[in-house]
Design a protein that fits this description.
Shape: elongated
Structural class: alpha/beta
Low-confidence stretches: 1-9, 125-143, 418-426
Number of strands: 18
Strand content: 15-25%
Number of domains: 2
CATH architecture of the largest domain: Alpha-Beta Barrel
Length: 426
Amino acid sequence: MRAPMLKESVYREEYPSGSHVFREGEPGSCAYVIERGAVEISTLHQGRKIAISSLGEGDLFGEMALVDSELRSASAMTTEETVVVVISLDQLREKLEQADPLITFFTRNILERFRDSQSRLLGHSREADDSNVVGSVLEKDVSLPRHRERAMRKLKFENEINKALINEENIIHSQPILDLRTGAMAGLEALLRWDHPERGLLYPNDFIGFSEETGLIIPMGLWVLEESCKALLSFQKKLNAVDPNAPLLFMSINLSSRQFSDIDLVRNISNIIDDTGVNPEQIKLEITESLLMDNPSRAAVTLNGVKALGLEIAIDDFGTGYSSLSYLHRFHIDTLKIDRSFVSTATMNKGSMEIVRAIAGLAHNLGLDIVAEGIEQPEQVTLLRDVQCEYGQGFFFSKPVVDTEILSRIEELGEAKNKVTPIGIA
């Protein structure tokens, strides 16, 4: 008797005592978890039934045929009235496709060795049973060679990233953020680059996703934070030498979802602040709207911890993510960054212009600063000034550049207090 659940691929089945769930030699299309009852797993050897195991509540069986698509190597019979949760081929295929390819590769190899050992113990020849391999959808879509290739590629890339951290192949490029009211540099955004020994300069899209997946983003992110703090200290020292009355610069540093969910994030930030001696009020952490709303309670705890250290919080790419604005007063936000997609089209598209105007008005009413991203034209600067946007960044002012170039330009930026001049577009 089948009782459908939310997904068609997952359901329950009930079996009376002494019923076969499946028989040896049948094709496998499902795996089973015992919700209530008991099941005996057995095989036939030279016409004699051999009991392999007795399973009870919570035990999984029948999964082997789904992973490698071979025929059932044993029979499963209930020894009392039993209810099982059925896991279909489609559901398992979906999970395998989402899994780490290295884990899938290991699983397939372990299963292959287990079947070989089982065959030898029972006196079977797997070579003689090659015709029993079922060419199922799973076998076609999740083949061992493909997973071997993916696993090896992932291992290689993971080792390369580890080496990059050890050999200091990572580079911080900083993009100036200007005060649109004066033209002076108000802060910078730290942007990670990877100087790969074979592939040259790599940008975040080339490796951040993989670093998130493997967890390497945690040490990488801490390195970015520490190096950015050190760079900020040198920038501030240089700026003070140029202008003793210069205001404090801020450094914006992006946090990924994996970093934000790290339970040690606040403690690690505190340690870096102590080690570098940077003023925490000069550090601005950039997060996306989705990070806040994925788990609001946990996000509130993390943000409270960060704010207690004295750091500021900026919402990156504002206007492109979560539809509700309720979080703006729920969380301690300091800055909204207007997404470049609105800025780039604001002078040509009335809708984009009104969105920019609305974001600016919202920020002002809530007492938040505004940073406009992706400024590339002087007309955009004029529009942003008109809506009283305080800060802006983009190629019109400067591309992201290495620290030495920032240091050499600080004097130029200091002299340009009362005008906005394109710099660093070479």
